[in-house]
């Protein structure tokens, strides 16, 4: 993990992003490292080793890893530590399929129910996402992206749907996101948040649903594999083709 992501030095960015305590900061660091492949699938890690990498004690690392166990991102290995859970292509396809069934119809509902005063907080989170993308701060980007979509879905009035969608988002893999950040394409993806907000303001349910389908399909095809050509080679993943 890079020194830029040291939780001792990290300061939350963006007007709506609250300060994290040490455990939460470590949790975000580790979750991002797993989702982006910095901590590789099948890798065996220990609390002391990760604590040394992050510049913190083993205690907040172990606490964070137990949260990640509950999220299905790692598993405990007796007397050794934690192993990063592997995700097969089939499992990633299944996660994407469930997201396709849940999130596009949900934003269609939001387009019909969201109130005008909801857009200020959502716009601030969209700003945080694009600023983080431009700084190549993946921890902050993924956190703000998750909070943005979670906040959008709260306007369905269905907390169980929000919990399910957020859980699915945390369990995905985004191995190509580092490359996209380095070459500037992550900022292009972040701008889709503004397009979604425009569609929601215009009460365009069909447009919002189509954008979300494209967003999920793109994440599965390119971000999860790290290969730009996979979007062409794996058309079977795209629900909007």
CATH architecture of the largest domain: Up-down Bundle
Low-confidence parts, pLDDT < 50 over ≥5 residues? 2-16, 228-241
Number of helices: 12
**What proportion of the residues form beta strands (DSSP E)?**
under 5%
Number of separate strands: 3
As a percent range, the share of helical residues equals: 55-70%
Q: In angstroms, what is the radius of gyration?
A: 18 Å
The secondary-structure element order is: HEHHEEHHHHHHHHH
How would you sum up the major sheet? 3 strands, antiparallel
Tell me the span between the first and last alpha carbons: 37 Å
Give me the side-by-side strand order of the main sheet. Answer: 1-3-2
Query: What is the fold-level CATH name, i.e. the topology of the largest domain?
Result: Four Helix Bundle (Hemerythrin (Met), subunit A)
Annotated CATH homologous superfamily of the largest domain? GntR ligand-binding domain-like
Residue-averaged pLDDT, rounded?
Answer: 85
Q: What's the CATH first level of the largest domain?
A: Mainly Alpha
Structural class: mainly alpha
Shape: globular
Number of domains: 2
Q: How is this structure best described in words?
A:
This protein is mostly helical. The protein folds into 2 domains: 3-84, Winged helix-like DNA-binding domain superfamily/Winged helix DNA-binding domain (Arc Repressor Mutant, subunit A, Orthogonal Bundle); 89-237, Four Helix Bundle (Hemerythrin (Met), subunit A) (Up-down Bundle), CATH 1.20.120. It is built from 12 helices and 3 strands; from the N terminus they run H-E-H-H-E-E-H-H-H-H-H-H-H-H-H. It has helices spanning 22-35, 47-54, 58-71, 89-113, 119-135, 138-154, 159-170, 177-182, 185-190, 192-201, 205-223, 230-233, and strands at 44-45, 74-77, 81-84. It has a 3-stranded antiparallel sheet with strand order 1-3-2. A hairpin with a 3-residue loop joins strand 2 and strand 3 (81-84). Helix 10 packs antiparallel against helix 11 (205-223). The longest helix is centred in the middle third of the chain and has 25 residues, at 89-113.
